[in-house]
């Protein structure tokens, strides 16, 4: 498995490395920074990275965590493990039209393991793993940066040498404390980026191991090249960006191992120079290794394509408005503006937001927009760096700048909209890997400034200040990610024009029962985005609960007009129409909802309620039965079936349904209560009493439970216990009229018995 170079005149690789070490300038000579032994440098990086994000360990599940974890059936034990390979990140089938095609089975597998060991959805374990992953990645960055900044060289014993210990420590610290990483670490869904980065770096380090000379004198190992390809595949199975490491390995091979001068190579290709071999293209097996990388990458992409299918992901205009612009010019201008904003987040990560869509960044529609300046600044800097990377006479400078630009740009390409439409405008999580390139360029810039500066200590103190500010910013941002309320409110000042921010603040308030405040934010979301159907739906629901039915109907009607297949809005419109006693329209709305979402148990439940109001008992029972078939734990549908059968005198059937329901949901006290009522009427007093007592034990403050148990004892002739439970029921709910009447009847009966006994 070792590729042997059949070139007798090839110099000994180790001697060449040592000569290179003597000839090339060392970046550390110009860097005024701390020099620590490798072990201590890694310990410092691990501790600082832990310090930045430690306060997120006990945070809640926030934002996308709900869909990716709590509502993802792939985490539960009853879902076969094999399904993970055919579902997307959110648990939907990859073949579904609604799938986002985000294929990350290994990330979902780690969530499943978390869930298994925690025994449920307890976020602490999920957060701790994320923090550990970031600390591990930051420690690995010390080794990665030592190679990227100092070159790849080995000792006589085959140990890799760190020729840039100070620079690699500084770059690793910059990476560890960058605030833009907070979303990946403090948001559990960010684990996809963390796992991808981990195997991305391991793939790179594995590729570097391929060039460690062995005792036989072979120049590189095919085994380690293949290991690198496999690790790249694993990185891609964690997140799509992982595949880009294969391209970066090829760039590293060409620049560092073969020391190819790209400008010289381009010239020779243009002029069809036959001395390409002298340019380094064929030396040291470069073409063979690149062929291995290309074949590996093509195989990985083909397998992923076969599993994922050929259909593109389904995104909407609100997710990525620029990609829906009719004009190619508008699309190009806005894509470049997004790139400049991503670059700004790396340079100045002060304004961070959980979501940058829905009007947060208005489209640039003409060249007169002042934001064009940001594009010009970005390309001015990039072109300047590219020119230096290609044309500089200093080979050391060319290598570092090219590697820095490579690690900045190549991992970002899958999120660039160049190859396919992505489902976001800006996403801080996708900058996790490109920030490696930023740290290389920052460290190199710092070394150039240190070389020119007379007072190097002041410069070092300034960089220390930047690191300290970033640590504090990370800690503050991590605390904001601990709860949805803090996270959503933190976005109001960053993206006040983002309708989704206002929507999420409103939703959070509604979940906490603060409907008045929620209405305000939902109205603002609809004002900012008049086509925001989800905001209309939620606002309509609140207005429905507040009995403001006519406005609720207007909002929900508009929502289904804008999005005719919005099943939830159709169902809620049906509920409002039912409340307005427009039964035929309500029935039509329910059936329209079911047409667009065939497996919709809640809609069948509401349809059953409509039929019950219309005394269409058979239809009601059928609708509720459909609800329980689709969702066996649908307690309300089971209860309504039992109560309807009870009220219509079908006690035997009601009992059968009640027993069936309790077999499926044995700990539901409301089902125990309903079945106990039926058994009492069937004079099965002992069994009825047992169920009543069990229901009361589960929910001791339910006045109706005590009241109906008292009725049972009353019928049964156990008058003292009946009196006791009537009194408990009245204490819990003094206004209950039926209980009060029954209690008065019992008291009169007890008085009569006392008189007879006297």
From TrEMBL:
Its EC number is 2.4.1.109. TPR repeats lie at residues 499-532, 533-566, 601-634, 703-736. One of its GO terms (biological process) is endoplasmic reticulum unfolded protein response. It is found in: Endoplasmic reticulum; Membrane. Residues 311-383 form the DUF1736 domain. The keyword Amino-acid biosynthesis does not apply. GO terms for molecular function: dolichyl-phosphate-mannose-protein mannosyltransferase activity. GO terms for cellular component: endoplasmic reticulum; membrane. It is a multi-pass membrane protein. Pfam families: TMTC_DUF1736 (PF08409), TPR_11 (PF13414), TPR_16 (PF13432). InterPro entries: O-mannosyl-transferase_TMTC (IPR052346), TMTC_DUF1736 (IPR013618), TPR-like_helical_dom_sf (IPR011990), TPR_rpt (IPR019734). Pathway: Protein modification; protein glycosylation. The keyword Membrane applies. The chain crosses the membrane at residues 33-54, 131-151, 188-208, 220-237, 243-266, 286-305, 372-391, 403-424, 430-449, 458-476. PROSITE patterns: TPR, TPR_REGION. Keywords: Endoplasmic reticulum, Membrane, Repeat, TPR repeat, Transferase, Transmembrane, Transmembrane helix. PANTHER family: PROTEIN O-MANNOSYL-TRANSFERASE TMTC4 (PTHR44227:SF3), PTHR44227. Belongs to the TMTC family. This is dolichyl-phosphate-mannose--protein mannosyltransferase.
């Amino acid at each position: 498995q070792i590729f042997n170079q059949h070139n007798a005149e090839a110099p000994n690789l180790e001697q060449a490395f040592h000569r290179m070490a003597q000839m090339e300038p060392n970046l550390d000579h110009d860097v005024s920074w701390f020099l620590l032994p490798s072990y201590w440098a890694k310990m410092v990086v691990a501790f600082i990275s832990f310090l930045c994000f430690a306060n997120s360990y006990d945070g809640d599940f926030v934002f996308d965590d709900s869909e990716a974890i709590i509502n993802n059936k792939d985490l539960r034990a009853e879902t076969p493990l094999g399904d993970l390979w055919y579902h997307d990140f959110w648990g939907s089938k990859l073949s579904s039209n609604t799938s986002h095609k985000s294929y990350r089975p290994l990330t979902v597998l780690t969530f499943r393991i978390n869930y298994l060991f925690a025994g449920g959805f307890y976020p602490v374990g999920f957060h701790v793993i994320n923090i550990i992953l970031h600390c591990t990645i930051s420690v690995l960055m010390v080794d990665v940066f030592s190679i990227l900044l100092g070159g790849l060289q080995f000792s006589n014993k085959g140990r890799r040498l760190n020729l840039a210990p100070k620079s690699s420590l500084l770059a690793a610290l910059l990476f560890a404390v960058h605030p833009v990483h907070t979303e990946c670490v403090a948001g559990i869904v960010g684990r996809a980026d963390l796992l991808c980065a981990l195997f991305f770096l391991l793939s790179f380090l594995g590729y570097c191991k391929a060039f460690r000379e062995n005792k036989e004198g072979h120049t590189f190992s095919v085994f380690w090249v293949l290991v690198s390809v496999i690790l790249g595949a694993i990185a891609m199975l964690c997140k799509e960006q992982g595949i880009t490491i294969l391209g970066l390995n090829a760039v590293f091979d060409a620049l560092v191992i073969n020391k190819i001068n790209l400008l010289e190579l381009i010239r020779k290709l243009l002029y069809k120079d036959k001395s390409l071999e002298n340019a380094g293209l064929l030396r040291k097996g470069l073409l063979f290794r690149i062929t291995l990388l290309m074949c590996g990458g093509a195989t990985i992409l083909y397998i992923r394509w076969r599993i994922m299918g050929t259909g593109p992901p389904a995104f909407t205009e609100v997710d990525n408005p620029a990609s829906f612009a009719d004009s190619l010019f508008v699309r190009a201008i806005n894509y470049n503006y997004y790139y400049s904003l991503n670059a700004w987040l790396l340079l100045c990560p002060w304004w961070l937001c959980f979501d940058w869509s829905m009007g947060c960044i208005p489209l640039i529609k003409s060249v007169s927009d002042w934001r064009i300046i940001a594009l010009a600044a970005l390309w001015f800097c990039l072109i300047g760096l590219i020119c230096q990377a290609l044309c500089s006479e200093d080979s050391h400078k060319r290598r570092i700048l090219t590697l820095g630009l490579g690690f900045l740009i190549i991992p970002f390409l899958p999120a660039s909209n160049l190859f396919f439409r992505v489902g976001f405008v800006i996403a801080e999580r996708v900058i996790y890997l490109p920030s490696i390139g930023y740290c290389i360029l920052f460290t190199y810039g710092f070394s150039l400034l240190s070389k020119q500066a007379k007072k190097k200590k002041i410069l070092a103190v300034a960089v220390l200040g930047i690191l300290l500010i970033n640590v504090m910013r990370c800690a503050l941002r991590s605390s904001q990610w601990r709860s949805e309320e803090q996270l959503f409110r933190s976005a109001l000042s960053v993206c006040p024009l983002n309708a989704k921010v206002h929507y999420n603040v409103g939703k959070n308030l509604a979940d906490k029962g603060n409907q008045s405040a929620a209405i305000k934010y939902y109205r603002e979301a609809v004002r900012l985005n008049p086509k925001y159907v989800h905001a209309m739906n939620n606002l309509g629901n609140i207005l429905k609960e507040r009995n403001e039915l006519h406005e609720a109907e207007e909002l929900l009607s508009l929502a289904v007009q804008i999005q005719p297949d919005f099943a939830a809005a159709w169902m809620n419109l049906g509920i409002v129409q039912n409340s307005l006693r427009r039964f035929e329209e309500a029935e039509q709305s329910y059936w329209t909802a079911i047409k667009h979402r065939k497996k919709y148990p809640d809609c069948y439940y509401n349809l059953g309620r409509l039929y019950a109001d219309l005394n269409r008992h058979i239809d009601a029972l059928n609708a509720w039965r459909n609800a329980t078939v689709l969702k066996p734990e649908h307690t309300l549908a089971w209860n309504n079936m039992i109560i309807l059968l009870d009220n219509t005198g079908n006690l035997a059937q009601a009992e059968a349904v009640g027993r069936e329901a309790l077999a499926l949901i044995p700990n539901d006290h409301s089902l125990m209560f309903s079945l106990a009522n039926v058994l009492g009427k069937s004079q099965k007093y002992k069994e009825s009493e047992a169920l009543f007592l069990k229901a009361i034990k589960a929910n001791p403050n339910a006045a109706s439970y005590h009241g109906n148990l008292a009725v049972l004892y009353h019928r049964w002739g156990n008058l003292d216990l009946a009196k006791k439970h009537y009194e408990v029921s009245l204490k819990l709910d003094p206004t209950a009229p039926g209980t009060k009447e029954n209690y008065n009847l019992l008291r009169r009966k007890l008085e009569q018995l006392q008189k007879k006994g006297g």
